[in-house]
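To start, one record:
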Amino acid sequence: MSIRGLKKKQPKTFKVKIITVDAEMEFSCEMKWKGKDLFDLVCRALGLRETWFFGLQYTIKGMCTWLKMDKKVLDQEIPKEDPISFHFLAKFYPEKVEEELLQEITQHLFFLQVKKQILDEEIYCSPEATVLLASYAVQAKYGDYDPNFHEPGFLAHDELLPKRVLRQYQLTAEMWEEKITAWYAEHRGIARDEAEMNYLKIAQDLEMYGVNYFPIAQNKNHTDLLLGVDAKGIHIYSINNRFSPNKSFEWSAIRNISYSEKELTIKPLDKKAEVFKFFSSQLKVNKLILQLCIGNHDLFMRRRKVDSIEIQQMKAQAREEKARKKMENQRLAREKQLREEAERAKEELERRLFQLEDEARQANEALLRSQEAAELLAEKAQIAEEEAKLLAQNAAEAEQERQRLEITALKTKEEKRLMEQKMREAELIAVKLVKESDRRAKEAEHLKQDLHEAREAERKAKQKLLDITRLNYPHMVTKYPQYSPTDTRDANFDKGSIKLDLKDIDLKRLSFEIERERLDYIEKSKKFEDRLKELKSEIHALKLEEKQSGLYC
């Protein structure tokens, strides 16, 4: 067979891109493939067995549509693009996630999709619940909380809360992270699949969980209602309230659902009950509503029947897998605990080793210090011995000095006593000299007065004598001027002349004695002053010796 022949027999293909919530895949599909062929290929690639929950969704003319399983892919109204893009999403939701989601991959895909719907605000969630859900999402992503590893700011790049919640409360990113981390720290020991399941168990109780909404009208002119389809039935809502339905039809109470063009009819099981009719904007919307109703109704009935062999096998495998995972988790937890205990023991041993090393180092340093101290003490002992000898020598010298000072002190006391005695004597001499000076001054004054009186008496006597001579012998003086009666006068006045001469001699003698006594007084005063100076010098010298003796003592 030629190569050209092989090429002709190769089927023609087209490319598709499958987008899951967290990944993208590309496949080559044969031109004749139906929707189920492509869907099965994707499920095999994902390892998914619970295929009844999922579908391939695409968007055409602004409307989301699900790929039909029983028709060829290329025969359906799909986007004309290369590759053709499909979103692999959950089309139907379980009533109880913990009982119906058996595979871990199924659970993980539901977790990612529901989380995205909450963050995109397609499912309303209260702020408190969003924080709790965010903590489970963090546990599923990061594992157990470790304050040494998960430092502040580790959630800065994670989208965990709806923007509506962030706008509603004026909190910083750090405050939100602190709130989430407080819950996150409580989930220690929870595995990833358990954290995702806890997330879904909380989310399935939200009013908008698993509901597909469509705008409808009770007549052809107005669109004033919403029709919601979920795992439990069909619900009618007012246009502004998607939480509390105005009317609900459970799947068990619906007998038939049909559409004609844009009109859709819901017939209750009770034939007496009113038939509900409504209108949609397009025929495609009615087809989509009917498709979702049929799928949810089939699952609703399937849950209430005995499980098929395949489902029983899957549940058994799921139980075994859960048991195995539980044991594995317990083993891992035990190993982790043992590892943590071993690490703590290792840290304790390292700490103890470090402590012992530190103690050994300190002991070694103490030993070195002790040796140095011993050497220093030996040196100090030698120095102390030398100092003791020196001190003994100094003590002996001090004792000698003390004895000398005592002797000096005794001498000083004796000299002080002599000095005081001399001072007293000097004071007495000074007093005597003052008294003698006063007495001599008084005597000199008296003598001067007597001398003055004597001279005055002499003058008067001479004058009187002259007057008497003139009165008694005036003729002798005038008659015999050439005659000098010297002898006569001498004879007549011999007695008086002798008295005058004696008087003069006494006066001279008195003056001489006064002068002599004055000179003696001056000489004695000079000697006394010299003696006082000597006493002052001696007193000054004694005081200096006394001060020096005081300093030495």
